[in-house]
Structure formats: structure tokens, C-alpha cells
Amino acid sequence: MALTTITAAMLAADLISDHTNIGAEPAGSDEVLLSDAGVLKAVTVTNLIAGAGGGKVLQVVNAVYSTQTTATSDTYTDTGLTAAITTAATDNKVLVIVQQRGCGKGGTDTGINLQLLRAASSICVFEARGGYTGGTSNNGIGGCGVVYLDSPNSAASHTYKTQVASYSDSSTAYVQWVGGTANSTISLIELEY
User: How many domains are there within the chain?
Assistant: First the structure.
């Protein structure tokens, strides 16, 4: 039998102090009871959540990209994976979650470098020399990812993207390798602070 009601008789005297101060049962099904200096008070879940303050998720933006991209030098080039979000307030933060799929190096002595950018500024290098073997065989390493909490410091549109470079100049590094079947993703989550 499931317990649906907790009565005062079920509570130890010291569990919630002065539990008899509540004058009536909660009026609605979304109410909870809180002890305020020993006095039980009813509050709705909606008001409890609204008063919780920062950390609320305001919006989520997601993008997927699957076209193979190569880099043949140590100069970074766009992978094609990009997304934009417009933040509502200056203090809000953006949680960026990237999963770059189909990463690897071609048949040369190199590795893959990946970075995350906001607009034209690098904010995080999340892979360095990935797949490097010291040899000249192909090496597919699968996915590389990053979770990054960014503070753009303005209520405006912000574009995030990834870039790829070869660790060794004139060698080949890949993302979304495997003929377009490797889907890379980027998710942007605006958090109220």
C-alpha cells in the first residue's frame, strides 16, 4: 500500500519542530511544506522555483553538421559546425557542448588540433595532436568533445564554431571523416545568472 498522507502522529517530535503550527492542509496539489524557523508554511512549487534565482535554463540551440572537412596545414580552418544564440542579459552565461565526430589524420606524420571560437576569438583548444602516432598510416580516432561555460558579457547574438588544423604543416587532418556519416553536434544553452 502506497503512503499518500503524512500525519503529525507519524513524525518524530524533533523531525520538524513545532509541526502543529500549520492550521490547514495544503490547498493545492503543487504545494509543499517548508519549515521557517520552526513554523510550517505552504508554498507552491511554481513560486519556489521562481524564487530560486540564477542557474535557470532560458533557451537551447542545437546544430548538426556532417560534411567532411580537411585541414592540410597548421593554420586553423572552419569545420562547418556552427550555431548562434542571442543572450537575454549581460550576466547570462552560455554552456557550449561540442561533439566533433569523425576525427583523424591522413597517411602522414601528424595529428589533429581542434579549437572552439566565439565570433573570431578562440576560447578553448579542446584537442591537440589527436591521433598522432609518429608514423605515416591513417588513424581515425572517432569523436573529440568539449563542455565549456562561456561568459560573453553582453546581451547580443553570439556565434560559436569549431576549427580544425593539422599538427604538422602540409599534412592532412579530418573531421566528419567517413563519407558524411559522422554527425558533429554543437549545443548552446543560455543560463541565467
Answer: 2
